[in-house]
Amino acid sequence: MAEGERRSQPDSSEDIPPATQNFIIPKKEIHTVPDMGKWKRSQAYADYIGFILTLNEGVKGKKLSFEYRVSEEAENLVATVVPTHLAAAVPEVAVYLKESVGNSTRIDYGTGHEAAFAAFLCCLCKIGVLRVDDQIAIVFKVFNRYLEVMRKLQKTYRMEPAGSQGVWGLDDFQFLPFIWGSSQLIDHPCLEPRHFVDEKAVNESHKEYMFLECVLFITEMKTGPFAEHSNQLWNISAVPSWSKVNQGLIRMYKAECLEKFPVIQHFKFGSLLPIHPVTSC
C-alpha cells in the first residue's frame, strides 16, 4: 500500500498543474460518518498520505542539522510567496494555511489543524512551488518552524487540545513529528526507543531529533510520572526498534486521525486535493 501511495506524490514537472487550471476555494465535503468512505477513496486521501510517506522516507536516518539542498522554486516561495503565473492558486492554497493555526473562537488546536498545514505544504508541491527535492527542507525547516510557532501559541494562550483522547492519546496536539521523528532515528547507532523516556538522553539529543523534541515539550507542559500522563508513548518505548515504531505510528495515524470523523469533518477539498475517487493509473 505504501508504494502505491507514494507514487501518487507528484515527482516531475509533468504533474504540476498548468497555470490555466481552474482552482477553487476548498470546502467541506464530509458531513456525516458515512461520508468517511468518500474520503478514504478520494484522490485527496491518496495524495495526502502519499505526501506524508514521501517525507517520512526523505528524513530517514537524518539529523535536524543535516545539510539539505533547497530548490530554486522553494527560494522563490520565500521571496514572493507564490510566483505570479500561479497567482490563481493562492486563494485555494491559502485556505489550508488559515486552517492550520487552530480555532480562534474555541482557542483550540489539534491534529486536524496540523493536517491542514501538511495539506498546505502538499498543495505547494502539487503546484510546483516546492519540489520533491525539497522534502528534507519541508520537514526540517518549514514544518519544524511551524511546530515552534504552534508550541509558543500553546504556551502563551494555553490552547485547548482539539479532539484529544487524554491519557489514551499519543499527544494532545501533534502527531506528524512523532512519525517523521521516529524515521530520523531508524538505525541510529546508540539511541533506541527505550531511551526517549530517559531525561538525560532527551536533553542531550533533542535539538537533532523531532521525536525527542516532542517528548521534551510534553515534559515541560505536564507534571507527574511520564507513564501516567503519556501512557501511549510510554508503551511505545518498549518497542524493540525505531523502524517498528515508525510503521506502528503510520498505522496509528491513519486509524486515529485520518479515519476519525471528528477530525476529517473539518478537512476541505478543492481542485488540488479533490474529493473525487482516486484515479487508477
From TrEMBL:
Compartments (UniProt record): Cytoplasm; Nucleus
Catalytic activity, reaction form: [protein]-peptidylproline (omega=180) = [protein]-peptidylproline (omega=0)
Keywords: Acetylation, ATP-binding, Cytoplasm, Isomerase, Magnesium, Metal-binding, Nucleotide-binding, Nucleus, Rotamase
Highest taxon of the lineage: Eukaryota
UniProt-listed InterPro entries: Phstyr_phstse_ac, PTPA_C_lid, PTPA_sf
EC number: 5.2.1.8
GO molecular function ontology, one term from the record: metal ion binding
Biological process annotations from GO: mitotic spindle organization
Pfam families: PTPA (PF03095)
Residue intervals passing through the bilayer: none
GO cellular component: cytoplasm; nucleus; protein phosphatase type 2A complex
Matches recorded under Gene3D superfamilies: 1.20.120.1150
Family designation: Belongs to the PTPA-type PPIase family.
Role, per record: PPIases accelerate the folding of proteins. It catalyzes the cis-trans isomerization of proline imidic peptide bonds in oligopeptides. Acts as a regulatory subunit for serine/threonine-protein phosphatase 2A (PP2A). Modulates PP2A activity or substrate specificity, probably by inducing a conformational change in the catalytic subunit, a proposed direct target of the PPIase. Can reactivate inactive phosphatase PP2A-phosphatase methylesterase complexes (PP2A(i)) in presence of ATP and Mg(2+).
Name of the protein this chain belongs to: Serine/threonine-protein phosphatase 2A activator
